[in-house]
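Working notes for the structural subgroup meeting. M.R. asked for a predicted model of this chain before we commit to crystallization trials. I am recording the input and output together here so anyone reviewing the notebook later can reproduce the run.

Input as submitted:
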Amino acid sequence: MRKFFLLAFLVFSIDCLAQISGTLYVAAKGGLSLREKKDANSKVLVQIPYGTKVSINYPDEIVNITSDGIIGAWAKTSFNGKTGYIVNSFLLPWPPPKSTVKTMKQYLLQVSPAAGAPVIVKAGSIESLEAGGSNTKKQLYKNGAEYHEETFYEAGNDIYFLPGFTIEQGFILLRLLPEFKAVFGETDIFPMEDKTIKRGEDDYRIRVEKMETSDWIEKIQIDYVEGAFYTFEMFLLGGQLVINFGAGV
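Returned structure, recorded in C-alpha coordinate form:
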Protein backbone atom coordinates (compact mmCIF):
# COMPACT_ATOMS: atom_id res chain seq x y z
CA MET A 1 0.00 0.00 0.00
CA ARG A 2 2.80 2.42 0.90
CA LYS A 3 4.66 1.74 -2.36
CA PHE A 4 1.46 2.35 -4.31
CA PHE A 5 0.89 5.66 -2.50
CA LEU A 6 4.44 6.86 -3.16
CA LEU A 7 4.17 5.90 -6.82
CA ALA A 8 0.84 7.72 -7.14
CA PHE A 9 2.32 10.82 -5.53
CA LEU A 10 5.33 10.71 -7.89
CA VAL A 11 3.07 10.39 -10.94
CA PHE A 12 0.90 13.25 -9.61
CA SER A 13 3.96 15.49 -9.16
CA ILE A 14 5.35 14.72 -12.61
CA ASP A 15 1.93 15.24 -14.18
CA CYS A 16 1.57 18.69 -12.60
CA LEU A 17 4.99 19.72 -13.89
CA ALA A 18 4.16 18.38 -17.35
CA GLN A 19 0.97 20.45 -17.49
CA ILE A 20 2.94 23.68 -17.26
CA SER A 21 5.47 22.77 -19.94
CA GLY A 22 5.43 22.96 -23.72
CA THR A 23 3.22 25.41 -25.65
CA LEU A 24 1.03 27.69 -23.53
CA TYR A 25 -0.71 31.07 -23.70
CA VAL A 26 -0.05 34.28 -21.78
CA ALA A 27 -3.02 34.99 -19.48
CA ALA A 28 -1.79 38.12 -17.69
CA LYS A 29 -3.94 41.07 -18.83
CA GLY A 30 -0.99 43.45 -18.85
CA GLY A 31 1.24 40.89 -20.55
CA LEU A 32 4.28 39.09 -19.16
CA SER A 33 7.74 40.58 -18.77
CA LEU A 34 10.46 38.62 -20.50
CA ARG A 35 13.44 39.14 -18.20
CA GLU A 36 17.13 38.71 -18.83
CA LYS A 37 17.63 36.54 -15.74
CA LYS A 38 15.55 34.40 -13.35
CA ASP A 39 14.99 37.38 -11.08
CA ALA A 40 12.04 39.75 -10.63
CA ASN A 41 14.50 42.66 -10.50
CA SER A 42 16.29 41.62 -13.69
CA LYS A 43 16.21 43.74 -16.85
CA VAL A 44 12.99 43.50 -18.91
CA LEU A 45 13.87 42.56 -22.49
CA VAL A 46 10.35 42.89 -23.91
CA GLN A 47 6.69 42.62 -22.84
CA ILE A 48 4.84 39.57 -24.17
CA PRO A 49 1.20 40.55 -24.86
CA TYR A 50 -1.90 38.87 -23.42
CA GLY A 51 -2.97 35.88 -25.52
CA THR A 52 0.44 35.23 -27.09
CA LYS A 53 1.37 31.59 -27.66
CA VAL A 54 4.77 30.73 -26.18
CA SER A 55 6.88 27.59 -25.94
CA ILE A 56 8.65 27.15 -22.62
CA ASN A 57 11.25 24.91 -21.07
CA TYR A 58 13.09 24.97 -17.78
CA PRO A 59 16.74 25.52 -16.91
CA ASP A 60 18.67 22.79 -15.10
CA GLU A 61 18.19 24.73 -11.86
CA ILE A 62 14.53 25.60 -11.35
CA VAL A 63 13.95 28.83 -9.43
CA ASN A 64 10.54 29.22 -7.77
CA ILE A 65 8.67 32.50 -7.49
CA THR A 66 5.34 33.29 -5.79
CA SER A 67 2.91 35.58 -7.63
CA ASP A 68 -0.66 36.31 -6.49
CA GLY A 69 -0.32 33.46 -3.99
CA ILE A 70 0.66 30.91 -6.66
CA ILE A 71 3.99 29.15 -6.27
CA GLY A 72 5.37 29.12 -9.80
CA ALA A 73 8.77 28.98 -11.44
CA TRP A 74 10.88 30.87 -13.95
CA ALA A 75 10.56 29.34 -17.42
CA LYS A 76 12.75 30.00 -20.44
CA THR A 77 11.20 31.24 -23.69
CA SER A 78 11.83 33.42 -26.74
CA PHE A 79 9.78 36.29 -28.18
CA ASN A 80 10.54 38.77 -30.96
CA GLY A 81 14.09 37.51 -31.31
CA LYS A 82 14.88 37.80 -27.60
CA THR A 83 15.38 34.92 -25.18
CA GLY A 84 14.83 35.20 -21.45
CA TYR A 85 12.65 34.12 -18.54
CA ILE A 86 8.98 34.51 -17.64
CA VAL A 87 6.88 33.48 -14.62
CA ASN A 88 4.90 30.36 -15.51
CA SER A 89 2.03 31.14 -13.08
CA PHE A 90 0.20 33.21 -15.71
CA LEU A 91 0.19 30.68 -18.55
CA LEU A 92 -2.80 28.62 -19.69
CA PRO A 93 -3.01 25.51 -21.90
CA TRP A 94 -5.75 27.20 -23.96
CA PRO A 95 -5.98 30.78 -25.29
CA PRO A 96 -7.27 33.14 -22.56
CA PRO A 97 -10.76 34.68 -22.84
CA LYS A 98 -11.30 37.44 -25.38
CA SER A 99 -12.62 40.77 -24.08
CA THR A 100 -16.14 39.92 -25.33
CA VAL A 101 -16.26 36.60 -23.43
CA LYS A 102 -18.04 36.91 -20.08
CA THR A 103 -19.04 33.35 -19.13
CA MET A 104 -17.48 29.91 -19.08
CA LYS A 105 -19.93 28.64 -21.71
CA GLN A 106 -18.84 31.44 -24.05
CA TYR A 107 -15.21 30.64 -23.31
CA LEU A 108 -15.60 26.95 -24.15
CA LEU A 109 -17.04 27.91 -27.54
CA GLN A 110 -14.17 30.36 -28.06
CA VAL A 111 -11.55 27.63 -27.71
CA SER A 112 -13.36 24.68 -29.32
CA PRO A 113 -16.43 23.82 -31.41
CA ALA A 114 -19.15 21.76 -29.76
CA ALA A 115 -19.03 18.03 -30.54
CA GLY A 116 -22.62 17.53 -31.62
CA ALA A 117 -25.88 18.51 -29.95
CA PRO A 118 -26.29 18.51 -26.16
CA VAL A 119 -27.66 15.41 -24.46
CA ILE A 120 -30.63 15.86 -22.13
CA VAL A 121 -30.93 13.48 -19.19
CA LYS A 122 -34.19 13.54 -17.25
CA ALA A 123 -34.85 11.87 -13.91
CA GLY A 124 -38.01 11.71 -11.88
CA SER A 125 -40.91 14.04 -12.53
CA ILE A 126 -39.58 16.76 -14.83
CA GLU A 127 -43.05 18.29 -15.09
CA SER A 128 -42.87 18.94 -11.35
CA LEU A 129 -39.29 19.39 -10.16
CA GLU A 130 -40.69 19.97 -6.69
CA ALA A 131 -41.65 16.29 -6.65
CA GLY A 132 -38.00 15.26 -6.89
CA GLY A 133 -37.24 15.46 -10.58
CA SER A 134 -34.11 16.80 -12.20
CA ASN A 135 -32.95 17.88 -15.62
CA THR A 136 -29.32 17.61 -16.78
CA LYS A 137 -27.98 18.96 -20.08
CA LYS A 138 -24.56 17.67 -21.15
CA GLN A 139 -22.45 19.27 -23.86
CA LEU A 140 -19.17 17.82 -25.12
CA TYR A 141 -16.57 19.89 -27.01
CA LYS A 142 -14.05 18.69 -29.57
CA ASN A 143 -11.09 19.54 -27.34
CA GLY A 144 -12.42 17.17 -24.67
CA ALA A 145 -14.06 19.80 -22.45
CA GLU A 146 -17.56 19.22 -21.08
CA TYR A 147 -20.36 21.36 -19.67
CA HIS A 148 -23.17 19.96 -17.51
CA GLU A 149 -26.18 22.06 -16.54
CA GLU A 150 -28.17 20.49 -13.69
CA THR A 151 -31.60 21.85 -12.74
CA PHE A 152 -33.50 20.90 -9.59
CA TYR A 153 -36.37 22.45 -7.67
CA GLU A 154 -35.24 25.98 -6.70
CA ALA A 155 -31.60 25.01 -7.29
CA GLY A 156 -29.11 24.43 -10.07
CA ASN A 157 -25.48 23.60 -10.79
CA ASP A 158 -23.13 24.32 -13.67
CA ILE A 159 -20.27 21.82 -13.91
CA TYR A 160 -17.28 22.24 -16.23
CA PHE A 161 -14.56 19.73 -17.10
CA LEU A 162 -11.31 21.26 -18.41
CA PRO A 163 -8.72 18.66 -19.49
CA GLY A 164 -5.08 19.55 -18.91
CA PHE A 165 -5.71 22.40 -16.43
CA THR A 166 -4.17 22.61 -12.97
CA ILE A 167 -6.08 24.14 -10.05
CA GLU A 168 -3.80 27.19 -10.24
CA GLN A 169 -4.53 27.62 -13.95
CA GLY A 170 -8.24 27.33 -13.20
CA PHE A 171 -7.89 30.14 -10.68
CA ILE A 172 -6.16 32.37 -13.27
CA LEU A 173 -8.86 31.59 -15.86
CA LEU A 174 -11.79 32.27 -13.52
CA ARG A 175 -10.37 35.67 -12.52
CA LEU A 176 -10.68 36.63 -16.20
CA LEU A 177 -14.38 35.69 -16.48
CA PRO A 178 -16.93 38.18 -15.07
CA GLU A 179 -19.33 35.30 -14.39
CA PHE A 180 -17.07 34.27 -11.48
CA LYS A 181 -16.24 37.71 -10.07
CA ALA A 182 -18.11 36.90 -6.84
CA VAL A 183 -15.87 33.84 -6.38
CA PHE A 184 -12.46 35.19 -7.47
CA GLY A 185 -12.01 38.91 -8.01
CA GLU A 186 -9.30 40.30 -10.30
CA THR A 187 -7.11 41.22 -7.31
CA ASP A 188 -7.73 38.10 -5.20
CA ILE A 189 -4.80 35.85 -4.41
CA PHE A 190 -4.78 32.07 -4.71
CA PRO A 191 -6.16 30.55 -1.46
CA MET A 192 -3.73 28.24 0.34
CA GLU A 193 -5.50 27.93 3.72
CA ASP A 194 -9.00 27.77 5.18
CA LYS A 195 -10.36 31.22 6.00
CA THR A 196 -13.48 33.36 6.16
CA ILE A 197 -13.43 36.76 4.46
CA LYS A 198 -15.90 39.63 4.17
CA ARG A 199 -17.28 40.87 0.85
CA GLY A 200 -19.51 43.78 1.81
CA GLU A 201 -21.82 42.34 4.46
CA ASP A 202 -21.45 38.73 3.32
CA ASP A 203 -19.17 36.05 4.76
CA TYR A 204 -17.21 33.95 2.28
CA ARG A 205 -16.08 30.65 3.76
CA ILE A 206 -13.07 29.23 1.93
CA ARG A 207 -11.97 25.65 2.53
CA VAL A 208 -8.76 24.23 1.08
CA GLU A 209 -7.98 20.50 0.97
CA LYS A 210 -4.35 19.41 0.59
CA MET A 211 -2.59 16.09 0.19
CA GLU A 212 -1.62 14.68 3.57
CA THR A 213 2.10 14.57 2.80
CA SER A 214 2.56 17.83 0.88
CA ASP A 215 1.18 21.28 0.09
CA TRP A 216 -0.40 20.14 -3.19
CA ILE A 217 -3.92 21.62 -3.33
CA GLU A 218 -6.53 18.95 -4.08
CA LYS A 219 -9.72 21.01 -3.73
CA ILE A 220 -10.97 24.54 -3.11
CA GLN A 221 -14.52 25.12 -1.88
CA ILE A 222 -16.20 28.49 -1.33
CA ASP A 223 -19.64 28.97 0.25
CA TYR A 224 -21.47 32.28 0.52
CA VAL A 225 -24.95 33.81 0.65
CA GLU A 226 -25.86 36.52 -1.82
CA GLY A 227 -29.65 36.41 -2.04
CA ALA A 228 -29.35 32.66 -2.65
CA PHE A 229 -26.91 30.17 -1.12
CA TYR A 230 -23.94 29.64 -3.45
CA THR A 231 -21.40 26.82 -3.46
CA PHE A 232 -18.27 26.73 -5.60
CA GLU A 233 -15.92 23.75 -5.88
CA MET A 234 -12.76 23.25 -7.93
CA PHE A 235 -10.72 20.02 -7.90
CA LEU A 236 -8.67 17.67 -10.06
CA LEU A 237 -10.17 14.42 -11.32
CA GLY A 238 -8.45 12.02 -13.71
CA GLY A 239 -6.22 14.56 -15.44
CA GLN A 240 -8.86 17.25 -15.77
CA LEU A 241 -10.04 20.20 -13.71
CA VAL A 242 -13.63 20.07 -12.46
CA ILE A 243 -15.44 23.32 -11.61
CA ASN A 244 -18.84 23.11 -9.92
CA PHE A 245 -20.77 26.33 -9.35
CA GLY A 246 -24.29 26.09 -7.98
CA ALA A 247 -26.99 28.05 -6.15
CA GLY A 248 -30.21 27.31 -4.31
CA VAL A 249 -32.68 28.82 -1.88
